[in-house]
Design a protein that fits this description.
Elements: E1 16-17, E2 23-24, E3 40-43, E4 57-59, H1 61-68, H2 73-90, E5 95-96, E6 100-104, H3 108-118, E7 127-129, E8 136-141, E9 147-152, H4 159-167, H5 174-196, H6 201-204, E10 205-210, H7 257-264
Parallel strand pairs: 3-5, 6-7
Antiparallel strand pairs: 1-2, 3-4, 6-8, 8-9, 9-10
Helix pairs in contact: 2-3, 2-5
The structure holds zinc ion (ZN).
Length: about 270
């Protein structure tokens, strides 16, 4: 999928020139700043009480890195998994971040991909956790109940790296760890460059529709207020001077008068 590029003169340590000449921020390694990385279209409501805005926004791997804090193999495996899921489950449609519930492992990296792309949030009960999922996700379209799952092929990610990921969280000698962490990072990135980047998301991430999913319990339950009005229709009469409703059926001059008067009365 994404062509390999060689590290720049800085060895890829500080970003650098990508093959299309643009310069990535330092937190995106030059060898990762290549065309063909997955991107994601997302839609949200227009405001805190607003309805759904049909205009999509594009989320890149660089955006995911910025949100998560670092580029890592887990973040990229999550991005590949989500791209595979979106290709099958959503077709050409964007992630509607006002209408999705997501399940992920409670991994720092996978959990951030899940929350950022789907809009699922633990504090609203729309991001649930299941350690048995491994590198994979389940998403449920809340309005329809349709549920999908994606899982990484067993064996795609080397067991040896996984074993070191666990070991390096443990009680190793600090001087050993100092060197091992650096080598471990190199081996992780070698795998990303040799195995993940050349593959298409659908090559190693399997998607299926689920007839039934027993959801893990919510950590918190709360009403998410900024999606309550998501399905309200576009206005017929009132055009906002700040951000006109481009898909509103009304095209005549604004007729705010009676609605302004109604508003002045207060909601009581
Ligand atoms: Zn990470």
């Amino acid at each position: 999928m994404a062509p390999r590029s060689t590290p720049g003169p800085d060895g890829g340590r500080n970003g650098g020139e990508s093959i299309d000449g643009s310069r990535a921020p330092w937190y995106v390694p030059a060898w990762l700043d290549v065309p063909g990385l997955p991107t994601f279209e997302v839609i949200d409501t227009r405001s805190a009480q607003g309805r759904l805005d049909p205009r999509s926004k594009t989320v890149t791997v660089a955006d995911l890195v910025l949100f998560h804090g670092h580029a890592c193999d887990g973040l990229l495996r999550g991005a590949w998994a989500m791209r595979a899921l979106a290709d099958v489950a959503l077709g050409g449609a964007p992630f509607d971040r006002s209408d999705l519930l997501v399940v992920s492992k409670n991994s720092p990296c996978l959990g951030d991909v899940a929350a950022y792309l789907t809009g699922g949030r633990a504090r609203f009960g729309t991001h649930r956790l299941d350690a048995s999922l491994g590198v994979g996700f389940q998403i449920r379209v809340r309005s329809s109940g349709v549920t999908w799952e994606v899982r990484e092929d067993p064996g795609f990610f080397p067991d040896l790296i996984g074993a070191w990921e666990a070991a390096l969280l443990g009680d190793l000698d600090e001087d050993d760890k100092r060197e091992l962490l650096a080598h471990h990072e190199s081996v992780q990135w070698d795998w990303v460059r040799d195995a993940l980047l050349p593959s298409a998301p659908g090559d190693h991430y399997r998607v299926e529709r689920l007839d039934h999913l027993e959801l893990p319990p919510a950590l918190l339950e709360a009403r998410r207020t900024d999606t309550v009005n998501r399905a309200v229709e576009p206005p017929v009469e009132v055009v906002s001077p700040y951000d006109p409703d481009l898909d509103a059926p009304g095209s005549g001059p604004p007729t705010r008068g009676r609605w302004a008067a109604r508003y002045e009365e207060g909601p009581g």
